[in-house]
Design brief:
Length: about 280
């Protein structure tokens, strides 16, 4: 049962602003209630020794991502604090152009120890930033970890490789192919027991999924943070089945219809569909 418990170590949360652009679709209080009630449920459901052995409460992380999140800054900050106040590392994923436009807000989150890492995506539209070095300098003055991703040319345009500030820090750079390029090669490992990769992921509408790749496929949801009882009632049977049986990859199973691949992330859907 430790494997089930361990699924609560990390969370992926996708956030989106509402029609006003000033608030998030799901108010912060729902995230707070879900997190607190989940902690209570874990202690009520599992033996305390099991919780200790699982190391559940050590090295936990939540990744918060979305578009134009900082337009709803107060809501975002409140949600991030739900996790940082409970000793979880908080990683914020953000586009470089949004980071540039809201740099002071990000610095405030970093200086107040609400976020511990920033993952920055540099796309073509971000290459118009006029003074990237000033942005890099201010970021590296904080204690946050930096992960920077983007096509190599875009990284060069924003001085990622030549920045004195970035080169003086231990940062992580993840270049990928130029925009427009695609690779048809399959991942080396074949579709496997997805339980090794399951992570609780919450969509912008509050629906909870066992994998980031399933977000927005509502029939694959295992509850909603606005109705946590439904989540608890469905989660244990789901997790137990995945641990004991793994995904159904038989030709007569869900793989026969790609739209019904409830047990696979998008990467594995691609892999299986090209092997059929």
């Amino acid at each position: 049962m430790n494997q089930v418990i361990n699924l609560f170590r990390n969370f992926n949360i996708f956030l989106e602003t509402d029609n006003t652009g000033k608030h998030l679709l799901v108010p912060p209080e729902y995230y707070k209630h879900w997190f607190e009630s989940t902690a209570e449920w874990l202690q009520d459901t599992f033996d305390l020794e099991e919780l200790r052995q699982s190391s559940l409460f050590a090295g936990r992380e939540v990744i918060l991502s979305g578009i134009n999140l900082l337009d709803a800054y107060d809501d975002f900050k409140e949600i991030a604090k739900v996790f940082s106040d409970n000793n979880m590392a908080v990683t914020m994923q953000i586009e470089a152009i949004e980071l540039y436009n809201h740099l002071e807000k990000v610095l405030d989150l970093a200086k107040n120890h609400i976020i511990t890492a920033v993952c920055i995506s540099i796309h073509k539209e971000s290459t118009d930033i006029s003074s990237p070095e000033l942005m890099w300098e201010k970021l590296t003055e904080t204690a946050v970890s930096l992960i920077i991703t983007g096509a190599v040319n875009n990284l060069k345009t924003l001085s990622v490789f030549s920045s004195p500030s970035l080169n003086s820090q231990d940062i992580r750079i993840c270049p990928y192919p130029e925009e427009g390029e695609t690779y048809e090669t399959l991942p080396e490992n074949t579709a496997c027991n997805c339980v090794e990769h399951l992570i609780i992921s919450i969509g912008a509408d509050g629906f909870i999924y066992p994998c980031l790749g399933l977000i927005n496929i509502e029939k694959c949801a295992i509850g909603n943070i606005t109705d946590d009882k439904a989540f608890y009632d469905s989660f244990i049977p789901f997790a137990s089945k995945m641990i004991e049986q793994g995904p159904d990859i038989s030709s007569s199973g869900p793989v026969a219809n790609n739209s019904e691949l409830a047990w696979f992330c998008r990467r594995h859907r691609y892999e299986v569909s090209h092997n059929e």
